[in-house]
Amino acid sequence: MMTPASTLRSLTAIPGFSTVFSPARLLTGCAAAWVLLPAVSHADDTQIRFQLDWRFEGPSAPFLMAAEKGYFAEEGLDVQIDSGSGSAGAINRVASGAYEMGFGDLNALVEFLAENPDGPGIQGVYIVYDGTPAAVFGRKDRGIENPADLAGKTIAAPTFDTGYRAWGVFAAANDLDADAVEWQNVDPTLRETLLTRGDVDAITGFYFTSLLNLEERGMSEEELTIMPFPDYGVPLYGNAIIASEAFAEANPEAVKGFLRAFNRALGDTIADPEAAIEYVKNRDGLIDVEMETRRLKLALDSVVDTPDAREHGVGGVDEARLAQAIQLVADAYDLPSVPSPDQVFNSSYLPTQEERRLFSAEGE
Questions:
Q1: C-alpha to C-alpha distances, 120 to 52, 94, 198, 245, nearest whole angstrom
Q2: CB 224, CB 138: distance < 8 Å
Q3: Helix (DSSP H) and strand (DSSP E) numbers for the chain
Q4: Using CA of residue 108, residue 113, residue 115, residue 121, what is the dihedral sign?
Q5: Among residues 136, 300, 130, which one has the least CA distance to residue 214?
Q6: Tell me, what's the pLDDT at 44?
Q7: What number of other Cβ atoms are within 10 A of residue 359's Cβ?
């Protein structure tokens, strides 16, 4: 049994602990430490390694908030959140078992399942982006005002870009021959620069990423014709929370708890985006707070706050739309097989519909 003296000797062995001891000072130090401590995890908490699709930017706010505010801990979860390098990477890492859950493009998940029919099962469990963020950005000074004006033009994008991969869907929806444009496959870091310099006529990219990148390079929104895929007849879903099927089946309550915590943080983020950005800054102190706040608001306004989300709640899917989207992706990507909707998305882990009503219905 430790005596007061032995306790003091143990404390003074801690680097930086003062040998000048007083009860008041000890209580003050303990209080300060308590304020600085993050949510405490317990040995029996279920550990979840979570892979984001990209860097710590505005749209990652609800994930980081749920961790720092203790929402995950309240669900009995110990969640590790890591930045990513693209949706394909997030999906592959969940498939490999390196991560139990992640955040990635549902269309990339369809592609993975089609090309790996005997591979590890991965499912979407919560739709975050109700529409794909993919968009076409065209230079107005090249006469681009609508999809038909893209004929004969040069468009730049990385080979993995959703807008490039799903170009056939956009073209078909707008009576444009898919082969009517010339593509330049470029590094993602060069895409917006090429458009700004006038080396290409248009690009495809995520709306809330490319727009800010173009503005940062000196090109204003007034100089651009922007065609978001959802506004031009493309019914594809965007990014979703994904989970290893094996992990989810073995730990269903953990997955449900993760989604409840995230849903709660997403509601907080919608209510106060400025406050939510602080959780991104806490994770990466070098972010441009103003830019990332705008990026978050653009993401919320363009692909989270949709008529479907207002009517039915966030997170879920429309079965008919999902089946249509899967077939469109299979055709556009020339996939060897067509995954079933049940393979792609599992709604059984979702919070209740009432909990997921984070927006007022249209007209209210």
A1: 19, 9, 44, 8
A2: yes
A3: 17, 10
A4: positive
A5: 136
A6: 80
A7: 19
Q: Please state whether 198 falls in left (phi above 0), alpha (psi between -120 and 50) or beta.
A: left
Question: Would you say residue 11 has pLDDT above 50?
Answer: no
* Rounded distance between C-alpha atoms, residue 87 and residue 52, angstroms: 8
- Mean pLDDT over 318-342 rounds to 96
* Size (the chain), residues: 364
- Determine the Cα–Cα distance for residues 59 and 264; give it in Å rounded to an integer: 15
Tens-digit pLDDT profile for residues 239-259: 999 999 999 999 999 999 999
By the 10 Å C-beta count (0-12 exposed, 13-18 middle, 19+ buried), 293 is classed as: buried
Structure tokens at 199: 């080396």
pLDDT digits (tens, 9 = 90+) for 213-231: 999 999 999 999 999 999 9
- Can you read off the two tokens belonging to residue 34? 């308590």
* SS3 at position 253: helix
CB atoms within 10 A of CB 73: 20
Rounded to the nearest angstrom, the gap between the alpha carbon of residue 84 and the centroid of all alpha carbons in its chain is 10
Q: Which distant-in-sequence residues (6+ apart) come within 8 Å of 287 by Cβ?
A: 56, 57, 277, 280, 281
> Using CA atoms, how far apart are residues 99 and 120, in angstroms rounded to an integer?
13
Quote the tokens at residue 10. 């143990």
Contacts of 79 (CB under 8 A, 6+ apart): 47, 48, 50, 66, 67, 72, 258
Residue 43 has pLDDT above 90, yes or no: no
What is the dihedral angle through the alpha carbons of 247, 251, 256, 258, rounded to the nearest 10 degrees?
A: -70
Distance CA 353, CA 361 (A): 13
Structure tokens at 56: 């710590």
CA 61 to chain centre: 9
- From the list 193, 203, 130, 109, the residue with the least C-alpha distance to 163 is 203
Cα gap 299→304, rounded to integer Å: 7
pLDDT at 119: 86
